[in-house]
């Protein structure tokens, strides 16, 4: 079992930055691919970014590429999402997910409870 806890969300003005954390317990997160998804009010959950256990390869949705950076700290058993140049459209609940063998951008393993990010215009 892997328990995931997100933190770092909050209210920020457009153009600002936030860093989200996804802290894991129960298993070593370095053996898992970890992704960030987000769900805005009235919309379906969507993929934002992922980091894989093989060489730390990363993947980003077009909507966040160049603004968001995903990274992992194996010593802290934590994955981060640095979000810069935030836009009101980035407002959503952000979830992290961990999966040993995700299929493309589909993660069916463990999920956190989410952290709210609100970007004001």
The beta-strand count equals 11
- The H/E string reads EEEEEEEEEEE
| Mean of pLDDT | 95
Estimated structural class: mainly beta
Which parts are unreliable, with pLDDT below 50 for 5 consecutive residues or more? none
Please estimate the helix content: under 10%
Q: Estimate the global geometry from the Cα principal axes.
A: globular
Gyration radius, rounded: 13 Å
Largest sheet: 7 strands, mixed
Q: How far is it from the N-terminal to the C-terminal residue, by CA?
A: 40 Å
Continuous helix count: 0
Brief descriptors of the model:
single chain, 121 residues, mainly beta, 11 strands, globular
Gist of the model:
The chain is mainly β. It has strands at residues 3-7, 10-13, 18-25, 33-39, 46-51, 58-60, 68-73, 78-83, 92-99, 110-111, 115-120.
Fold and architecture overview:
With 121 residues, this protein is mainly beta. 0% of the residues lie in helices and 50% in strands. It contains no helices and 11 strands. The protein has strands spanning 3-7, 10-13, 18-25, 33-39, 46-51, 58-60, 68-73, 78-83, 92-99, 110-111, 115-120. Strands 2, 4, 5, 6, 9, 10 and 11 form a 7-stranded mixed sheet that branches. A 4-stranded antiparallel sheet has the order 1-3-8-7, with no helix packed on it. Strand 7 and strand 8 form a beta hairpin. The chain is globular. The model has no long low-confidence stretch (mean pLDDT 95).
